[in-house]
Predict the structure of Co-chaperone HscB C-terminal oligomerisation domain-containing protein.
Amino acid sequence: MECDCSFTMDIQKLQKKYLQLQRLLHPDNFSQKSGREQDYSKNQSALVNKAYKTLLKPLSRGLYMLELQGLKIEEGTDSAVNSELLMELMEINEALDAAQTPQEANDIGQDTKEKLADLTEQIDTALNKGELQTAKVLLTKMKYFANIEEKVKEKLSSFM
């Protein structure tokens, strides 16, 4: 994808490279070619899609960067989650469940976006300093807030 191995990324440059690669590799371009070339195109196009999806969002990008350094966040082993964060998450989820209007859900969504933006900055700083354990803790928190962001979207769609 010709991008720096950095948490901070030029998304427009990433999108441009993605489209450029898909124009070259998309299976539709190989419909008149041999089966081997069609399979190659399909596999390469799938890899480009996976890379793009991974790099596009800060959470998946950060998790990938940790994985490159040999660190993974295992499900169910979130030692970074303290009782204070759990209480905050529980309160946000309860408020979202109780939201009666799109505006109430939007307010929760806006707060969550701000938290995610702040976490993104903190993760970028930690990764730039080589503080992988700190980045791992912050990415664990980001994972929870990204989950709330998805719940907000679901709640907003239920109002329609």
Q: What stands out?
A: The chain has a mean pLDDT of 91.
